[in-house]
Amino acid sequence: MKIEKILNGIVKKNENKILLVVMDGLGGLPDPETGKTELETAVKPNLDSFAKAGMCGLSIPVLPGITPGSGPAHLSLFGYDPIEHQIGRGVLEVLGIGMEMKKQDIAIRGNFATIDKNRTVIDRRAKRLPTEENRKIVEKLQGTIENIKNTEIIIRTVKEHRLAILLKGDNLSPYVSENDPQKEGLPLKKIIPLKEEAVYTAEVLNEFVERVEEILPGMDTNAKTILLRGFSGIPDIEPFEKRYLLKPACIAGYPMYKGLAKLVGMEVIDGLETIDDQIQALKDLYSDYDFFYLHYKKTDSAGEDGDFKKKIAAIEEFDEKISAIKHLKFEVMCITGDHSTPCLLKGHSWHPVPLVIVSKNSLSDDVDRLTERACAKGILGTIQATSIMYLLLANALKLEKFGA
Amino acid sequence: MKIEKILNGIVKKNENKILLVVMDGLGGLPDPETGKTELETAVKPNLDSFAKAGMCGLSIPVLPGITPGSGPAHLSLFGYDPIEHQIGRGVLEVLGIGMEMKKQDIAIRGNFATIDKNRTVIDRRAKRLPTEENRKIVEKLQGTIENIKNTEIIIRTVKEHRLAILLKGDNLSPYVSENDPQKEGLPLKKIIPLKEEAVYTAEVLNEFVERVEEILPGMDTNAKTILLRGFSGIPDIEPFEKRYLLKPACIAGYPMYKGLAKLVGMEVIDGLETIDDQIQALKDLYSDYDFFYLHYKKTDSAGEDGDFKKKIAAIEEFDEKISAIKHLKFEVMCITGDHSTPCLLKGHSWHPVPLVIVSKNSLSDDVDRLTERACAKGILGTIQATSIMYLLLANALKLEKFGA
């Protein structure tokens, strides 16, 4: 991004504190019966009071029309270009179940699959075996295979037929081909190096698959082999603290968001199960950090379920909880979502996300409700999500003048 | 553009149909007497009903302040960056008169000019000879010169002193210099190759000019030679169907717009003389395509003439005609212009263009009129014209999630 050319020279440290509240999947679409969106229907005096006090707008997560996954959507909010910094599928799978990942590690998405004796793929999902069965197999595999050619292999159940695998060792490379033929009725492929540097990794992985195929026939399961794809290492992202001179804390409950925060170098607070835990942590840790990322998951989950009532209830629950932080002094507070998740579409969407920034160092507007259509008329206009972080820094007076 | 880095991985085919209506030169400026723009004055219940049903905004054709020609303005609407993909002047001249152009062909703009016996240019426009005279000379030239050094030469009248020339053959290159000295009183220049690969093309062109100068003195005309410029080949543009997985039809009457549609790989429906023909074609071909580009010319022509009444009449005529398609089911329909053509300026302008998108998969706003000032308050805000195509795809649910 363009701002990276000048940021380093203008960012400065001060005492001011920033709170970034991400209500996951915040934006929605109208219920066909009422003509009102989830946000337009929910009763949320506290959230609306922030909209009234602050400046409002809409935020485009990636580009107009583009529906982002959680990874790119969060990178944008954290001020990094999500197209320049693409996070591999393997990395997201590993982060999503809370595995720790270090530089040099290679993350992989795996599927249990069924093959015949000629190694032709019969079922790419091993008849979607139950998660419990997956767990048992993984326990057996992990007990037998710990290490191949000096590379440590860590295997974890995701759910049903899905696995996450982490390779830990020296000289590993993600530039290897998949063994998944993509279609049933085709033979399993050999994993081959796509770059010179990946010869060793391909050897490790081919031996891993061989070992798995020796062990599985001895178990009562449709899983006969393992399909491997999404090989990826940790993306090269400048850490938050170095980039913004902030000491950041991640106040999230779900592994995926903790993982994403860790990717950008935030300190992740563990053991936060409920929104009450999160609000308490925010109070307890108030003095220890100067940037807080607070993630609320339920709005997205309800949207994915297509459940209007549940999403409205999730908004109203959060509205009640957030009142507890009104007495904490954040020089700048932002409430937004990483993307929209309209109940009507039962999934993430491309629609710009409501956004409010409360700061005494900017002009407020006459928007007094945190809704899609009200925020569209706000003074911030419709902006790129990647701009938000810089507006927060500016409002916290942490950006010096550019040029003389 | 950035989106090109991810588009290929997320675009998908489905049954939904998209209609893009381009009212050429749509936006305007106020009549000094009434203080109202053409769109604010016209009575157009159908267009306003689309504005009411849909989401509104303004679109910037190229960049703020930049007045585009039809070429760049249309490339933007089709989702291609008009600065990255510049279309040569020769190509536009050739497309504008409906000539067919293939890969490897070189298009050229030509002028008839008057020279003296030392080949000094006396009049760069040969006293703007009448179009009829131009036609007679072209007929004679084309009858005599068909082929030079195995390159086919196609010569066509544009109007007055202007010509379009197409070279068809192997090993042609546009990298040659002009023979036009740009100023009268200077000698005609020799065409020289600007790259090694263009040696042959320069030879062909110099011989062409020589042959023309042998033939013209035998005719009763001020045209004594031909000035050649704007040498250009077809730009390398990823075809619409491959890029968007759409089957597109161009429903336009004028050669220029048919040519531009052909450049991006649309199927061009021929023989459409009137807007009635166009509307009928849209109905007849409804089942055969999933993307329709409907072009309406009269709004622009009236703007170029500076004729308020005529532009208002053009808007009202289209408003009446468009009602006939209301029963056709387009999941997504967009009405906009390629650029503004205010009567006040008698030409294209840089002003953002009114835009409405009708889709059940997005939030409508409270704008209920298709005018410049009403659309400026719409929920879409002011966006780049290049974003429109991606919003149409998103609303037609043709874009999958980016990242996990």
How is the topology of this model organized?
2 copies of one chain form a homodimer.
Chain A: H1 7-10, E1 18-23, H2 38-41, H3 45-53, E2 55-60, H4 70-77, H5 89-96, E3 106-115, E4 121-123, H6 131-144, E5 147-148, E6 151-157, E7 162-168, H7 199-215, E8 225-232, H8 240-244, E9 248-251, H9 255-263, E10 267-268, H10 275-284, E11 291-296, H11 298-305, H12 308-322, E12 332-336, E13 353-359, H13 372-375, E14 381-384, H14 385-395
Parallel strand pairs in A: 1-11, 1-12, 2-14, 9-10, 9-11
Antiparallel strand pairs in A: 2-13, 3-4, 3-7, 3-8, 5-6, 6-7, 12-13
Keywords:
homodimer, 404 residues, alpha/beta, eight-stranded mixed β-sheet, six-stranded antiparallel β-sheet, 19% strand
Task: Describe what you observe in this structure.
The structure is a homodimer of 404-residue chains. With 404 residues, chain A is α/β, with parallel strands linked by helices. Helices cover 31% and strands 19% of the residues of chain A. The first copy, chain A, contains 14 helices and 14 strands. In chain A, strands 10-9-11-1-12-13-2-14 form an eight-stranded mixed beta sheet, sandwiched between helices. In chain A, strands 3, 4, 5, 6, 7 and 8 form a six-stranded antiparallel beta sheet that branches. In chain A, helix 9 links the parallel strand 9 and strand 10. In chain A, helix 4 runs parallel beside helix 14, helix 5 packs across helix 9 and helix 11 runs antiparallel to helix 12. The longest helix of chain A has 17 residues. The first copy, chain A, starts with 6 loop residues before the first helix and ends in a 9-residue tail after the last helix. The model of chain A has no long low-confidence stretch (mean pLDDT 96).
